[in-house]
Amino acid sequence: MTRNFLFAATFAALAAVAGPASAQGDLEAGKQKVAVCAACHGPDGNVAPGTAPEGEAYPDLAGQTARYLYLQLRDFKEGRRKNPLMSPMAANLSRQDMYDLAEYFSKQKHVPSTFKVDAAKAAEGKKVSDAALCTMCHLGGFSGQNEVPRVAGQEYDYIVKQMHDFRARNRTNDAGNMTSVSRGLTDEQIEQLGHYITGLF
Predict the structure, then answer these.
(1) pLDDT tens for residues 143-160?
(2) Which residues pair with 148 in a beta bridge?
(3) Taking the CB of residue 6, how many other CB atoms lie within 10 A of it?
(4) What is 20-106's CATH topology?
(5) By the 8 A CB rule, do 145 and 71 touch?
């Protein structure tokens, strides 16, 4: 089985598990519900520098695909993805709450990260990305699609943490695709990928 076929098959499996959307999010309703999210993710889905405490990393949500946001909230609520902060936050959300919040954040403007990207590390990260065929799922520019997240310009600490979590199988709610990609990466390569992806916008 070729690597390209494996990735395509895995993505198809992920889409099949996720299933079609069965409800529509309401932008205005999401805006009214966003206060609970704002302390960590910012009122518009852009994380303020220095917000996350030691050992934590918060993702920017602005401009993320609505489908991906909904699925992550659902996975936190149902225990397929775990985090000491997000799991209890998602526990009390209804399905409509999740659709509304996903719609709201997907329509916000994502602003560039303030993280200082190292150009040399980013160049090496581009090579790692090309070798791992990252854009096969995340698309060119890491803009994302449907269940696959937009990661271009995402917070550096969050990217690195998620890659480590996938590699260690601490995060497994993606049908195994990212574990397959990350298990052969060194800490240095993950760092380089973080610089590269955070610098994209």
Answers:
(1) 999 999 999 999 999 999
(2) 145
(3) 13
(4) Cytochrome Bc1 Complex; Chain D, domain 2 (1.10.760)
(5) no
